[in-house]
Structures are given as structure tokens and as C-alpha cells.
Amino acid sequence: MRPVLVGVDGSDQSRQALAWALPYAVSVGAGVEAIMTVPKTQDAAETAASVRAAEVELGRIVDDAVSAVEQAPSVSYEVVPGDPAVVLVNASSNAALIVLGSHGMSTISNPVLGSVSTACIRMGSCPVLVIPSGKPESPDLVADVEPV
Questions:
Q1: Residue 128 and residue 99: Cα distance in Å, rounded?
Q2: Digit-coded pLDDT (tens) for 91-116
Q3: In the sheet where 32-38 sits, what is the strand order?
């Protein structure tokens, strides 16, 4: 089965998305792939340093989330230089589901979804689930999210 893809940016919303995705992945027998992005700069050394720092941050976020789930699924994680929307849309071709945190209120565009969520919904190759701000609901409350 293809993994559940989670976009993680360090925000509370993305942590909630990861917290939701872990038990869901267990329930459908899938693994989880967490992806964080960093800006790609003209300076390769600067980009590499950003990737290393983000890998440490993402590792901590994943470890914290996994430690809260009994019998957690396998989780891989990766930091990719580039635009978050482009990276996640590209990664969606190998995913069963994308799970993202909501952006919250925005004066630009959609009042709930951010630009990354909107891009994934419009251009992603798999279903997209956006977790609203606040405590994530149990995945067993989502009746019709079928694994791909």
C-alpha cells in the first residue's frame, strides 16, 4: 500500500495533521511519509545547512508524534529544498492520501485553506485531507476515507 503523505512545517496545524495520520495509517495498514521543505537558495552551502537544521527539527517532530501512538506505523521523513506546494504535489503521485494542517484565517484567497493546501487539492494525484485547527479528531470518525 502506498504511504500516507504528511506535509510538516513545524506549525501546530502540521503537527496535528501528523498526529491524525499516524493512527489512520495503522488502521489501513500503511506507512507514513512526512515531508518538510526549505527554501532553495542560490547558495548551495546555505541550502544544505537549512536542510540539515530542518532534518533535526523534523526528526524531533516525528519522534514526538510517534511516541504518542501505540503500535505506530513505520514513518519515513525527508526534507526537500523547494516550494512546499510543488514538492507535495509531486510526492502525491506515490501517496495514498495527503494529510495537511489547515492554514487558519487568511485575508488572501480562501478563509480556511492556505496556498499549499489549495494547490494539493487542485493538482495532487491522490485524495487530500485537511485537518482543521484545534485537537485532531480520531481517524475512526472519518467514515469514508478509503485507502488507495
A1: 6
A2: 999 999 999 998 644 444 444 568 89
A3: 75-81, 32-38, 4-7, 97-101, 128-131
